[in-house]
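Q: I'm building a small set of examples for a reading group on sequence design. Run inverse folding on the following structure and report the sequence directly after it, with nothing in between.
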């Protein structure tokens, strides 16, 4: 009887040791097959009319440091610049376009109760400079954010006619006639998402770099005494309450100093681009730190976030 009990104990001990060895082997094998991945970086570009030229300066500095976003989201002016960048243009090419841009290239005046700009020229300009490619054929994933006029809901255009999507995203109420796509009218995305950080996260970003070119509404009554002053104030007011709600999801926020520039001042391209460069240089260490922290975190061994759309 004692011998039999001894045999059983030895048998159970052997099973235990064998099981531990197998488990350890499997764990080591699983660990050895995991490979670290680079973070999915997104660039979320906010609205602000001609102040959006600052986005080009941001892109210039990111390019110079080898930082390449895999996702670009844009609202209003951000969608204008973002679409051209996501289509494959370099920062240098975009800067050249900015210096050449004239009001007549994108301004088509009309008389309407809904606005005084049609928006067709803006649409055609974008399509021309993205090579008439639909959004889904861009080398960088892109989303233009607009607002449905009938219900105030946010819409993210991630496929289809790029110029049409940008036109919808830029359609400032009472300035542009609302853009109509598939019988639905759209106005400026700044009403619901002035800096589309949440959209970037929903598209699967690990790290979001947000660019804030917004300005606080001017309390000086003289600022609204002219048409362009009224336009400035309209853009400054739009989305003020939701800006901070968006920015809290960003890893890094770049805020070029462009408050003094007019939203329709296309001649301010050089100043705005320089402001974008300067603001990005000040944040480049933070961006690189965010990337290095990701690479040292457990997330680097996990699959990339699954995009919601």
């Amino acid at each position: 009887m004692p011998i039999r009990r001894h045999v059983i104990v030895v048998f159970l001990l052997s099973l235990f040791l064998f099981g531990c060895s197998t488990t350890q082997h499997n764990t080591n094998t699983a660990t050895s097959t995991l490979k670290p991945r680079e973070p999915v970086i997104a660039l979320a570009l906010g609205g602000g009319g001609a102040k959006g030229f600052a986005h080009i300066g941001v892109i210039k500095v990111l390019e110079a440091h080898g930082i390449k976003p895999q996702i670009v989201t844009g609202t209003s002016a951000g969608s204008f610049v973002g679409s051209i960048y996501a289509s494959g243009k370099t920062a240098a090419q975009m800067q050249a376009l900015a210096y050449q841009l004239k009001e007549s290239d994108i301004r088509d005046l009309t008389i309407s109760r809904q606005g005084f700009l049609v928006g067709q020229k803006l649409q055609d300009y974008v399509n021309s400079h993205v090579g008439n490619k639909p959004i889904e054929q861009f080398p960088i994933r892109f989303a233009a954010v607009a607002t449905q006029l009938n219900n105030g809901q946010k819409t993210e255009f991630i496929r289809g006619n790029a110029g049409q999507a940008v036109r919808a995203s830029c359609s400032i109420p009472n300035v542009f006639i609302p853009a109509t796509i598939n019988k639905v009218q759209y106005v400026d995305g700044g009403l619901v998402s002035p800096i589309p950080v949440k959209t970037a996260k929903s598209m699967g970003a690990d790290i979001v770099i947000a660019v804030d070119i917004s300005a606080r509404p001017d309390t000086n009554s003289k600022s609204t005494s002219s048409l362009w002053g009224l336009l400035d104030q309209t853009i400054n007011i739009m989305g003020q309450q939701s800006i901070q709600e968006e920015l809290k999801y960003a890893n890094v926020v770049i805020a070029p100093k462009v408050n003094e520039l007019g939203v329709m001042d296309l001649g301010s391209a050089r100043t705005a681009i320089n402001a974008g460069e300067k603001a990005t240089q000040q944040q480049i260490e933070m961006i690189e730190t965010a990337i290095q922290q990701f690479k040292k975190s457990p997330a680097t061994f996990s699959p990339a976030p699954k995009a919601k759309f």
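The beta strands are 41-45, 71-75, 141-148, 154-157, 179-181, 184-188, 207-211, 252-254.
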